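INFO batch 0412 | record 1 of 1 | parsing
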Amino acid sequence: MAKLTPTNTAPGLHVSKPSPSEPATASAVCHCGASATAKGDTQVGALVSGWKANHGAAHGKRTTS
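INFO prediction complete | emitting tokens
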């Protein structure tokens, strides 16, 4: 599972919900340096919405010259 957790060198979003009766958890690290974690279905939903609106693909792909 540790390999799925985002890091500064491998940014991304990871969401887990082991079973319907367990709360969801999430962690996110963006290449801009922002990071967040959440626990509970509502908080995870908010983290995912924020990630989609402000991080990850919302930044576009970094390019190097």
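INFO post-check: The chain has one helix and three strands.
INFO record closed
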